[in-house]
Predict the structure of DegT/DnrJ/EryC1/StrS family aminotransferase.
Amino acid sequence: MEKVDLEKLALNGGAPARSKPLPPNYPGAVVMGEEEAVHAGQIIRAQSPFRFYGPDVRNAVTTLESMMERDLNVPYALGVTSCTAALVVALKALGIGYGDKVIVPAVTFLATAGAVVSANAVPVFADVDESLNLDPADLERVMDEEVKAIIAVPILGVPCDMDPIMDFARKHGVPVIEDVAQSCGVQYKGRYAGAIGDVGVFSFQMNKIITAGEGGAVVTHSAELYERAARYHDQGLLRPQLKERHGLNPDEETAAFIGQNYRMSEITGAVLIEQWKKLDGIVATMRSHHRYLKQALADSVPGIRFRSSPDEEGDIGSNLGIILPSAEQAQTFMKAMQAENITAHTLYGNLPVYRVPQIFHQRTAEKDNFPFNYPFQKPVIYTEDMCPRAVDLLPRTVFVPLSPVLEQNDLDEIVSGITKVYRTLD
């Protein structure tokens, strides 16, 4: 019998490190079970899927909000339809609109910048550091008197360096929104991301840490921002249930304003209650996987370079980030890893978010490309290389997603595959 060469790349005819692909990268969805089905079924059988009224309202969204408030140590949480909705709601709670600029990191999903535009403001882009998160040292470059907020985005489970970001924001008198869409459960110096800035927003979309398919939330320490967020997410109304729950008693003649409809349904709330109960377990498992892999790979491939983090303890470990010496080597590495049946990818087509065509060319569905048509004192101009570290790091930072359902043999096979492939790079 022919001997199988375990050190030979699968691309070149060797045996792959794994006999089958890794589990899909849907951390919350892969641990869904009877609990979510039962709770959602209770809402349906009660014939009351709307949170504020019905024949037998079960208050699922309110319960979810209470759980988030308790665990994140914030006084106010508000369930909404998506994280994009949460961003728009947060921006409007802060009074952001036409004629305003908002600092956005160069590495994030389109929705972060798109929400700014949907709120009728214009994004300006700060560069990233080796965590691929917002670089506090680059904030001054894009700051001017027309900037009215900063959005910090902990990408793929790594916290942002929030102390210098908050120091900068306080110095300039602008609020900070934390977009925690990809990193529910991440911490920075013992505090949960989302509870550090002025407003935090969360995503419960399909490939997020916990999920109901769609859904989002807004959290804040400010009663004023909560009231404005609650109004904006519900056509400008402040329902009696929310007034009574938080002891709010505004004068409707002076406090009310027009909003939109971003209300979370009771079915979504029911599913997320059960998912929220599983969050700590999901995070603990991913962290354990992440730490094991980093140590094992550091031992087997001493020259390997990992994505940095400002707080390793707070990192949720949802993805292992490896920085390759060049974009060409990253492409070679990913191709070889796929043949080994190990998922490996770069982010966002290797391009900063401002390179997305509709952002880069400042195109909207509105007349005269509103809100980009505002006559800013300092015009907003995007160039391809305006955030050089993002341009450099994105095409050579490879991510391996770490599902919470991986077992020890999966981890060992990942180590074997990465080691085998990495050693072949020139």
Q: What stands out?
A: Residues 34-273 form a domain with the Aspartate Aminotransferase; domain 2 fold (CATH 3.40.640.10).
